[in-house]
Each structure stands twice: as C-alpha cells, then as structure tokens.
C-alpha cells in the first residue's frame, strides 16, 4: 500500500526540483519506486507546484494505474527504466536552461567532462535523436540508452537522469546543467578532462 506520507515525500521532492529551476510549468516529470509500485507525476502536472491529487500510482511490472490518476505521457520510459535497472529508484525528466540549449544545438558536444563533477557524479551522457514526446519511439530510445547511462540528452527536447535516491538525482541533474552552462557560456571554446584525468579521479576518489 502506498501511504499518504509517501505521497507527501514525493510531492516535496517534486517541489525541490522545481525550486532548483530544473523545469518550467509542465515541462518535467518525476517517478519514484516504492516496492513494486511507481509513483509518477500526473499528465499535465507542474512539478514545482505538484499536489497529491496529481500523483499517479502504477504497478511497475504491468504498468497498470491503481489510483485513477492519469500518469505523465512519458511514464512508459519511467517504467522501462525501473524494470531494466533494479538499483534505480528515481527518474527525472527535466528541461533546465543551459542543458536544453545544448539539446537544441546542431553540433552537440561529444564529451561533457568540463569539470571533475561530471565524470564522477553524472557519468557519460548518452544523446538520443528527436522523437515526438510521449511516443513509443522516444520511450524505447530512452530505455535503451538508460541501460548503461545515468544521464541522457534528448535532442530538441530535454534531459533524463536516474539514480538511487532523490539526492543523487538532484546532484546529477545540477552538475549536468552546470557542465552545459560552461559549454554555452564559453561559446564552445572549452577544454575537457583527458581519459587519464578521469581514470585518476576514479582511482583516488
């Protein structure tokens, strides 16, 4: 059973992501694994002001909605990620300012490791082509990319990150946004850490 307290935790975290300016209006969606159930923001809901009445409860394996609230149209990839990644408990789709600029670039970066926080907290970023929001093509592309990545850039759309808990997801999203801000504000004149630098980080951190 999903409790009122669990719904309240989920709503509070949605507000936290909104306060971090990770999305505008209804542009983002959030999910949380609770046992064999998934809490997910409802279709058309605004994460910064999400209310308990707009939180959908779904069975993870069947995808069946259990409380009558229509889930976000992107709930298919949320479910798919949770099924494929048993260690993942939180999935966030967002559209932060600079990362969305990068998502719309004609020539996107192939390496986001502008500071040590990116390889250490975000990892390699997968890039998927544009597919219509809510489409099965987009869901399949995101699920496939998330099998071995924790962050995905959706071309001309936004970003998806996943993690073990709400803090890890927030950290991942904010450091991804920071990297994209460096890339954009440098006017594409930036350097990245070498492979040796990244390996050294993992060895000593």
Automatic annotation (TrEMBL):
Signal peptide extent: none
An annotated GO BP: pentose catabolic process
InterPro entries: Aldolase_class_II_sugar_metab, Aldolase_II/adducin_N, Aldolase_II/adducin_N_sf
UniProt KW Lyase keyword: yes
Gene Ontology, cellular component aspect: cytosol
Key words, A-Z: Lyase, Metal-binding
Name of the protein described by the UniProt record: Ribulose-5-phosphate 4-epimerase/fuculose-1-phosphate aldolase
Gene source species: Butyricimonas faecihominis
């Amino acid at each position: 059973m999903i409790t009122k307290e669990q719904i309240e935790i989920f709503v509070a975290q949605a507000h936290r992501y909104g306060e971090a300016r990770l999305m505008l209006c209804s542009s983002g969606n959030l999910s949380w694994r609770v046992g064999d159930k998934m809490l997910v923001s409802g279709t058309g809901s605004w994460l910064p002001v999400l209310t308990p009445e707009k939180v959908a409860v779904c069975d993870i394996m069947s995808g069946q909605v259990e409380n009558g609230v229509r889930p976000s149209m992107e709930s298919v990839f949320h479910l798919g990620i949770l099924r494929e990644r048993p260690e993942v408990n939180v999935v966030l789709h967002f559209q932060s300012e600079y990362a969305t600029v990068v998502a719309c670039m004609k020539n996107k970066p192939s390496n986001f490791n502008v500071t040590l926080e990116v390889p250490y907290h975000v990892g390699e970023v997968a890039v998927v082509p544009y597919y219509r929001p809510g489409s099965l093509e987009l869901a399949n592309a995101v699920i496939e990319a998330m099998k071995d990545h924790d962050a995905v850039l959706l071309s001309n759309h936004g970003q998806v990150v996943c993690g073990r808990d709400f803090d890890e997801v927030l950290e991942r999203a904010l450091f991804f946004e920071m990297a994209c801000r460096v890339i954009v504000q440098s006017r594409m004149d930036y350097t990245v850490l070498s492979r040796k630098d990244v390996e050294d980080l993992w060895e000593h951190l």
